[in-house]
Amino acid sequence: MTTIDSINNWFIQNFGAITIEQVKSWFVYNEDEKLLFNTGLFLGLFLVFYFVYGFLRKTFYLRLTYVILFSLFFYYKSSGIYFLLLLLSSVVDYGLSQIIYRESRDSVKKFYLVISVILNLALLGYFKYMNFLIVTYNDMFHGNFALHNVFLPVGISFYTFQSMSYIIEIYREEIKPTKNYIEYLFFVSFFPQLVAGPIVRAKDFLPQIYQKLNLTKQDVNNALFLIIGGLIKKTVISNYISVNFVDRVFDTPMSYTSFENLMASYGYAIQIYCDFSGYSDMAIGIALLLGFKLPVNFRTPYKSTSITDFWRRWHISLSTWLKDFLYISIGGNREGSFAGYLFPSLFFFGLLLWGMSCYTESIIPLIIAGVSILIFALSFLLSSKIKQTLVTNFNLFTTMLLGGLWHGAGAQFIVWGALHGLALAVHKIFMEFFPSKKDKSPNFLWRFFSILITFHFVVFCWIFFRARDFETALQVINNIGQLTFEPELWKTIVLGYKNVFGLMLFGYVWHFLPESFTNGMKSVFDKTPLLVKAIILGFVYWIVYATAVAGSQPFIYFQF
């Protein structure tokens, strides 16, 4: 018969004795031990939190306040004292939004909107881009400004964009402001999506706050299915591939063979997908358990038949935000603007300078610069509607450039955004010459090669995204370019990394499974008893604990 002592002994044997110091560490910020969804600490804290939440489900402001306090604690455990930055930002934006809503004069409303945007971007710019600007200035003008010791608060880009969307939607009169600050802070600080999205739009989320909390059995089924799938993606696949292969190759690509560089590129493609979509799945699932529906953020993006299709499937909340608040704001496909022409012009000018500076060593960079400019020019010069296509492509390119810069302060992120912007422009002119027939789906071969080409272009772009700097990305690409057919060497490498490659294969197979198969798995899961589902979830968390390597790995998008 199992006794309390035997259970206690088993717990101590597997997890160790709990001390006062350990209990304190659960509630005190530690830079090396952030509160992540895929940790046992989060599971324990969330279960306690959720138990109390159940008793507050019929209240309103008490429930909102309770979630806000837990959200602030969650952010404190991720960024320490910088949770106060979130509070400061929310107070300023809430106050300005109230002024804009009550103001009747358009010029005054626009003035306060500009103040809000400047303050938000200045805050984001200091913490995320200050050192990048200093390094750029020092390199260009031989300056000697010292770098700042700046801590990057986790997820600052996400909650800044979310806060900006709220005030812009009020300015556009698409929504009315919240009734008070508590409701607004609940929207901005909602912990499931606070640090890495999905980026929630005010007009989609705020109405849910005022609805009666209604958690159905199907919601619980959907939530648990998403959380379990997200945990497996993040911890079993992404973490293992990252620590045991991808990170090693990208840290020192010259120490590895061409084949290993190639496989690391494929590995990173599935790693970042499993990492980010896994986080999004868990965020959506946890929000569902609280009675809130967050937008889908990924729709099997590597099944995309074009780069345009890819951006309808990848990080959907960000691409939608960029379209609605950046692309449309600078003119969209209607008109040009100073900003719309400025950023692509600066990029191509910089690309040309880079090519010229490398001319004495190699002519290839100059050829790349010239070909890139030519391709972009042809993307609108060959169009039957040159003026409109020119405007569209410049605005689209600006959006992707700034989208790249949003992800990180470095030349490699700018190049990543530029490549996607150029590809979108090329695809638009391609579709003008070879329009798809709406009443006829493409044949299998056409679809297969479209997916294959799109996937490999995306993987190529991921090299810049993953590399620590532009030079490292070029090293990886150069190594892959020297690939030769050596089956015996490849076999040796595959056997040496059999666990890594096995998980990569598992991740890709899972991703490319037909939707009908996934729905079938979901149907079987829905029919299992709740107790069995809870056991499965607990088992997955045990796997997370048992297979943890080098501690819990932070989500990739935490750095953004």
Explain what the structure shows:
The radius of gyration is 25 Å and the shape is globular. It is mainly α. The termini are far apart. It contains 23 helices and no strands. The longest helix is centred in the first third of the chain and has 36 residues, at 106-141. The chain crosses the membrane at residues 35-53, 60-76, 82-99, 111-129, 141-161, 181-200, 220-241, 338-357, 363-383, 390-407, 445-465, 493-513, 534-558. It is found in: Cell membrane. This is MBOAT family O-acyltransferase. It is a multi-pass membrane protein. Belongs to the membrane-bound acyltransferase family.
Helix and strand arrangement:
Blueprint: H1 4-15, H2 20-27, H3 40-55, H4 61-79, H5 83-102, H6 106-141, H7 156-171, H8 181-189, H9 202-210, H10 217-251, H11 258-289, H12 307-310, H13 316-327, H14 338-357, H15 364-381, H16 386-407, H17 411-433, H18 444-466, H19 470-481, H20 487-496, H21 498-512, H22 515-527, H23 530-546
Helix pairs in contact: 4-8, 5-6, 5-7, 5-8, 6-7, 10-11, 10-21, 10-23, 11-18, 11-19, 11-21, 13-16, 14-15, 14-16, 15-16, 15-17, 16-17, 17-18, 18-19
Keywords:
mainly alpha; 23 helices
